[in-house]
Amino acid sequence: MTTIQTYNLFGEVGDLPDVVHCETIEARSRLHDWEFAPHRHARLHQVLLLQCGSGRMTMDGEPLDLGENSVVNVPMGCVHGFNFTPGTTGHVVTLPVEILDVVLHPAEGLRQVLARPAVVSARPNVVNTIEQISINFARRDFARAQVLRSLTGLLLGQIARDLAGDQSPAEQGQDLLARFQSLLEKHYRDHWTVADYAKALAKTPTHLSRLTRTATGQPATALIEERLIREARRNLVYTNLPVSTIAYELGFKDPAYFSRVFTRATGMPPSAFRSKSARP
């Protein structure tokens, strides 16, 4: 094979026509002699539940054995292939990326966790959720789409929780710090407090500050102020904007208060900092 095939469902190139797709492992495996060559899905995320039987798979070139009661998380774009023992049973849940956009809250960090290809043990709650998705997928009742969306959000949360449990404390801390830094870039002009960032990250302010102090040597409050001051420095050095305009653009309602904050952080008022920076 000279190129990696890209499919929606294996062997198909048309768009996924439903909110979610769910089928048994054997339904498609029988059509392909229980073997699927390495391929990827451009806009789909898959969760595979192997309940009985066994198999082998590759994910991004890594060979993995699959045993009973295994859950496989296959993120969008991951190159994967399967070779199942004939008679293997289970389910494959296929999710369009648009559903992930609907059910995953960006600030909670589930996308980053779910982007990791992995095989984990199938917990009873995950098995139950997938079975409920299978049952409701086959029905045509009122509110079917809403029920499937809700079950999909539950499944992704359960899978993300299991994957996060496999991470070391250091890895979890790095993920949380990256999410905090991403939020800081978006909201430093809004003057969010530590409590605001902690709420968006589903953590306590104490936990967030402990994390930033461990990682950077500074509490979260210092990092928040430092980001504002760094932007103020840039504006003072590289623009001719009046100090008052810079203050307003950075979310300060009172330019005098901005000057006091800047002076406390740098040891000199904004006008003096600009004059010093302009000297040859």
Fold topology:
Layout: E1 5-7, E2 21-24, H1 25-29, E3 35-41, E4 44-52, E5 55-59, E6 62-66, E7 70-74, E8 80-84, E9 89-96, H2 97-103, H3 110-114, E10 118-121, H4 124-138, H5 144-165, H6 169-187, H7 194-200, H8 205-216, H9 220-238, H10 243-249, H11 255-266, H12 270-278
Parallel strand pairs: 1-3
Antiparallel strand pairs: 2-9, 3-8, 4-7, 4-9, 5-6, 5-8, 7-10
Helix pairs in contact: 4-5, 6-8, 7-8, 9-11, 9-12, 10-11
Question: Your description of this structure?
Answer:
It is elongated, with a radius of gyration of 25 Å. It is built from 12 helices and 10 strands. It is α+β, with helices and mostly antiparallel strands and 280 residues long. About 2% of the residues have low confidence. The longest helix is centred in the middle third of the chain and has 22 residues. The protein folds into 2 domains: 161 residues, Sandwich (Jelly Rolls), CATH 2.60.120.280; 113 residues, Arc Repressor Mutant, subunit A. Helix 9 crosses helix 11, helix 9 packs across helix 12 and helix 10 packs across helix 11. A 5-stranded mixed sheet has the order 1-3-8-5-6, with no helix packed on it. A 5-stranded antiparallel sheet has the order 2-9-4-7-10. 50% of the residues lie in helices and 20% in strands. A hairpin with a 2-residue loop joins strand 5 and strand 6. Keywords: Activator, DNA-binding, Transcription, Transcription regulation. GO terms for molecular function: DNA-binding transcription factor activity; sequence-specific DNA binding.
